[in-house]
Every structure is written in structure tokens, then in C-alpha cells.
Specification:
The chain has about 900 residues and is α/β, with parallel strands linked by helices. About 65% of the residues lie in helices and about 5% in strands. The strands form 4 sheets. Strands 2-3-4-1-5 form a 5-stranded parallel beta sheet, sandwiched between helices. A 3-stranded mixed beta sheet has the order 6-8-7. The radius of gyration is 33 Å and the shape is flat. This is LuxR family transcriptional regulator.
Amino acid sequence: MSRWSFVGRAEQLDRLRMAVAGVRGRGILFTGRAGIGKSRLLHEGVDALPGDKYAVWRIAASATTSAMAFGGLVQVLPEQPQGLSPAGILRWAVDVLQQQAAGRRIVLAVDDAHLLDPPSAALVHLVARAENASVVGTLRDGEQIPLPIRALWTDGLVERAELGPLPPDETAAMLTAIVGGQVDSGSTDRLGRLSAGNPLLLRELVHAATNSGELVERYGVWTWTGRLELAPSLTELIDIRIGQLTPGVRAVVELVAFGEPLGLRLLHQAVEQHDVEYAEERGLITMVESDRRLDVRLAHPLYGEVVRRQCPVSRTRRLQAHLADLLEKVGKRRREDLLRVARWRLASGTAQDPAMLIAAAGEAFARYDVPLATRLARAALDAGGGFDAAELLATILMFADRPAEALGVLDAVATDTGQEERRSRWLTVRGMVSYWGLSQASTVEEIAAEGTKLTDAAAQARVRAFEAIMRLHRLDAPAALRLAQGVLDRPAASVAARELARCTIAHLQAVQGQLCRSASAVDLVQAKVASWRADMPYLQLAVELARGTRLALSGDLAGIDALVADEFADLADAGDFRLGTGYLAILRAYAARLRGRSDTALQAALSACAVLATSRVYAGLAQSERAQAAALRGDARQAAEAMAEADRLQSPTMVVLYPWLEQARAATLAAGGEPATAVKRLHDLVDRLRADGFAGHEALVLHDLVRLGQAAAQTGPRCSDGGRRTVAQRLTELSEQVDGELPPLLARHARASADGLPEGLLGAADGFAERGLDLLAAEAVAEAVHLLRQRRSPEVGHARQRLGALLAGCDMVHTPALQAATPTLTDREWQVARLAAVGGTSRAIAEQLFLSARTVENHLQRVYTKLGVTSRAELRLALGTIPGHDGTTAV
């Protein structure tokens, strides 16, 4: 990792190259904070300039060279002649550069131009005035800039552009380049926030995490544990930026480091106001509006890491105790104030109130901050919190993937469960840990037996609600429905118990195809979130599983997008709530797969596998989605490996997920060249789903058979007339039973495929495309192309154009449906169709441009090389005159 690949900054690179070429101005200066990537951007930009057109001189100014005349240009100028006046030396230097340029355009690339000595700055300004010269360079924010350099942009000789932090997508790309592989989304977000988009700090963070073993690889995905070991180089870098501080300013920085975000009024009570103002002027702290309060934060997240670690232990404890005293004195007015006081009390060793610690731990868990909640709950137990602290700690440990430790905590307070309300809580938490945490399927009978011994209606309802969802996950659907409905019918049941029972019903309704009723039930649960979150925050997982199942079965990709972008997703990622993060990654992979985005699907699935590696609840589901993504790409080997892992990791307590795993198994078999076996598996799965009453799943599995060319195949039991329905007929039946717009669309596709009607296939493709289901649309159009070619129909050309347009929006897709439906369409024809759609060109031009490349991406690199361009912007200039089929330009 000595030097990483340059990524991102495409817009800035284009601006630099355009400025040098003289299209816009005569140069550009990039300004920004240290480490933001100015120097690397400058080097990348000038490195790409061809030497036969440009005479490039690189100037690296420094504090050392700033003390001597022309010290900044010592790398490019020969020894000066004697006896010349200062003006004569400038004229001589310009003449030397023009002679050495030999007719080429002069480019002065000045790194850290603010450090140029006065004569060098004057010469740079003089060169910038020449018609055949450009000046490009960098300036650091907050530094004194020589007047000749400042005049460059005030005189209109160069542009001045602020280089800001890397955006999240470029931060992710840089992380991939640094570690040489994919980094999971949660780790990317946390490292991105900690580095604040600064490439240099990001690289140092990754070095530190790698060297300390805190950045680990699972299933090809790198995951950061969240523990940060600051390397000496990183600490020194931050120390230089913070600089020497007076005692008063240091007190400001330290208080903000331990208390941020800290209200400005609260800070003023602890330190002198002029010290706060000076710290803000120095760029050490920043003010942020928060509702009607002005909060103070450190200017960079890493400042806090360094300051906190360098602060002596005794002063650390004193500062945090002081912060807690201040906030308690003015009153905990905001919801988060309780959590902040508890965290300060815990860190300062002044936490003595177990009730306060329990409340704070519950609040942290409700925010899905699992590490903080664990520390607070353990402190509450140590402070004498008794059963309440033990119950909460065990629950949190369960979701921290430490079920054995959770059982130990619960068993230690088993004798403290005399009251039935307390006994029901103990039973449900212990049942949850043993059932989902340790995969002990026998827990259902155990908790059912214990529940019958309770006489209190509310206590019994809580146990029954847990028994219901366990039975659903174990695939005892009738009993699950009966128990859940019984809880809802009990007025004495708590809000949390009732809404857990409602989630069980909503999940069951979804798999049965009652999608509208399922959606209404989930909305009711979510409407009461404020009433159940404190008692049962993990209920949100049941909500998301029910909602995610419904969205997936209905093909609602927009709904999945909204789900993975809502508050729960942000909290889960930020708080290391891995079950939530992993499940949402599975949904992201599913949506990407149906869009034909195989790269995104595989990355999301691998991320889910890595995040869920220590938990078995959704681990099998994650691996099955990985198998689906690999099969979509035609990667039979990886699909088979993932399927084997899914079978190994699938928990016996999550049998309700079997339809997803079996669909993935069929896709894996088909990708591996065993379509007949895949078809048999799907027919068997249809029979099992029909027996279980899972009509929502059955519709999707029947459509998988359609995609394998089995629309006219017989399926299911014999009818009264002795015959059997075809797949298309059964799908038509289900389209009247299963809610939503997707089932009728699947049935339409099936009927058109069974009857060999290209018009019907194209119509179904339109419906799929309207819903964003580009993969299914492409498969339907491919089958239509095949039928039209057989009939020698003149409509085949139009259909092929539509196919190319659909494939242009996909990554690598290599499904049996596409292969089987278009046996006469060669790989070359596929790629030419894609290129024509992407470029907006005619097919003839696409053929000419195709060369021997087998992918659009490789083709573009060939075009870049052939035309001597390095970016899409330059490609547009080079190819802008090529007409497209619709009169537009080619690129």
C-alpha cells in the first residue's frame, strides 16, 4: 500500500486538462486543506499531458526554498548569469523557458505555490501572461499567499477552484484501491466519517487498522472492527495540524473532544469565551446549528481521537465528570442528554446510579448502538442493577453475537424471577438467546410449557407472542397464526407483545400472498414505534423481515430502496447492529439482481456474508443471495461454493426462509449446466409451497420455471378431469389470488411464452421495465427476438434494439433464459447491440467501433488509446461529429 491508484476527481481532472489546453483560461489553481489530495490531483493531471505537445516543468515549493531567490524554480532554471538586474533576470528566465519549450505549450505545475519565494512568484506570474503558457498548481487553505500568485486569478489568468472532501462514492473507491478489494458499506461509512473525506488521513487510518489486525477479510470483503489504533505517523500528522496551544485553548479543545456535540452556552460555563473564539479562528473547532441551539464540534473527527488519547487519565476523568455535572446542573432537556451524562459518568468513574445506567443502556440499544449499550448495561449490573440490568445486558449480548455469554448472565439471576411479569421477561429473553442465538429448535416446546404455568394475562401474552414468531420461523404456520391472533385478542397484552404478534401475522400474510394486508399490519406496528421501542427495540428486526419479505415478493424495488435508506439502516450501520445491517444488504443485493446490476448484487451479497459471518440467523440467506448473484454472472463455481456455505450455515430455527434458498439452489444448478435438475427442483419446490400455502413465493418460483422455458410444462396435482395445469395456467390462477401488480405481469409473460407470442412477450417486457425489473424485461425481449428471427419478421431489428437498450443498463448477465432464448445471437452481436444503445450510434458505427473487444468497458479503453484521449470529456470532443441513429452525437 505504498502508493494507491488514483480514483475519483474526474470533474477536477477534466477542468485541469481543459485549462491547460486553453479552452477555458490559461490555467487553474486548486485550493484546499492539507491532505485533501491537491498534490496528487496535480501530478495525475500533468502526467497525462503528451510530451510532444507540452513542455511541463514541475515546481515543488517548500519552506526551505522560500528563503532563497528563485529557490522555488531551482529545479527548472540553469545557473543565472551575473550582472543582471532583477527585471533582467526575469526576462532571462522567461527566454530560457521558451527556448527549452521548443515551440511546445509551456505548463508550469506549481505545488504549494503559497511557499514560493518572491522572485519565483513574480516569474510564475510573468509566464502566465504568455499566450503559449499555462500555470496549474495548488494552494493550502489558511496560508499567506504571495501577491503575484494572488494576482493570477484576480487578473483573470487562471481559475481558482476549491478542492473539497471526497464524496462518499469516491471514498469507497479509494478504500477499494488502498486495500485491493471490496470494503463493506458499514466500514466504508465509518472510515469515511472519521477521515472526513481526506485522502491522506483515510490512507493513514487504513494503514493503522491493517497493521493492528482490525481490518479483516471475509468472503473477499474487508470489514473494520471499529477499534482504532492510531499509528505514530497519524498522531504526528494531527499534532502538526493542532499545533501548540495555550492552556485555555487546550481546555476548550479537550472539553469539546470529550463532549461533542457540546452546546456553546454550556462550554462558556466551563472556559473563557475568548479561548473559544481563538480555537474557532484557528480552525480547531466549528459551530453547528442544531434546532435552536448552537453546538460546538471539533473541526475534524480525528482531532478528537488524538486529543483524547493524549490526555492524562486523571484529567480525562476530571473533565468528563465536570461535563456531567454541568449538564445535570442545567437539566437534561434533550432526549440524547441522558445518554451523554451516562457515558461521561461511566468514563469518569462517577456512575453510581444503576437506574440511570439502565435507562441510558436502553436508550443506546434503541439507537442500535450495540457496543455502547453493552458497556452501560454491564456497568448497571456491576452497580447493583439486579434483574433489570441482567435482562437488558443479556438481550444486548444476544445481538452482539455473544449468546453463550448472554445465557450466563441470565442464569445468574434465574432465582430473582418470583413475579410473573419478571418471569415472562426472563423466559422470553432466554428463549430468544437459545432459539436464535444458539439455534436450539427445542426452545419452542420449552417456552410453551413454561408459558402455561403463568396465570397473569399480560405475562402469558408476552410469552405467547415469542412462541408465535418462533413457530412461524420453524414453519409451524397454523400454530403461529393461532397464537399471534390470541395475543391480539387479549386486552391485557402489552404494546410490545401485541406488535410482535402483529409482525408474525404480517410476515405470514406476505408469504401467503396477502400483500396488502401485510403492508397494513406493518404500518400499524410502525405507527406505534414510540410505545414499543424502549421495551423491545429488537422488534424492529421482525418489522423489517416482514416488510422486506413483502417488498421482495411484490417486486417493489422502489420500496426496497426506501427501506435500505431509512433511519433504521443509518442507525444499524452506525451502531454496529449487524443483524440489521446484514439483512438490509441482502435486500440491496436482491434489488440489484432484478435490475440486472450483477456487480452491485454480488458486492452487496458478499458484504452481507461478511457482516453476518458470526451470526447464523440470516447467514444462510446471505449466502443464497450470493449464489444467485454469482449465477446471474455465469460464475457456476462461486455459486456452488456459496450454496454449500448456505446449507452449512442455515439455521434450523429459520426454516421459513427455505423458498429463497431453494430458488438459489435451482439457479446454481442451471448456471452449472444442469437445467433439467434445476427444473425438477423447482417443480418440487412448487409442490411444497402449495402445501404450505405460500402463494406469494409460489408465484415467483413458477416464474423461474418460465424463465427456464417451462411455461407450457405441467405442474402440481391432477385436476378432477385427470389432467394437470401448466405453469402458465397455475400462474394465471395465482394472479387472481396474490395481491399486487406483479403476479398478473408474471402470468402474462408465462402465457406469451407458452403460446409463442412475441407481441405478448414484448408487452410483458414493457411491464417489467416500468417496474425497473430490467433483467426480466431483457429475458422476455430476448425470447421475442428468437421467435421473430424464426419467422423472419421485419420487427426483429426493432426488438434487437430494445434488447440492446435493456442490456446497456445491466452489468454482466449470463442467465440460462438469455442463452436459451437467443441461441442464434452471438456474443459479438450482443455486445454490438449494447454498444449501439450506450453510445446512441447506428448499428453500423457500433460494428466499426467494436473492434475485437468483448465488453463495452474494454472497448472504451481501446477507443481512448486509439484516439489519444484520457477521459470521457475528451472523447466527446473527438467523436462529437459522429451522427447517431436518431441524429444525436455518438457519445
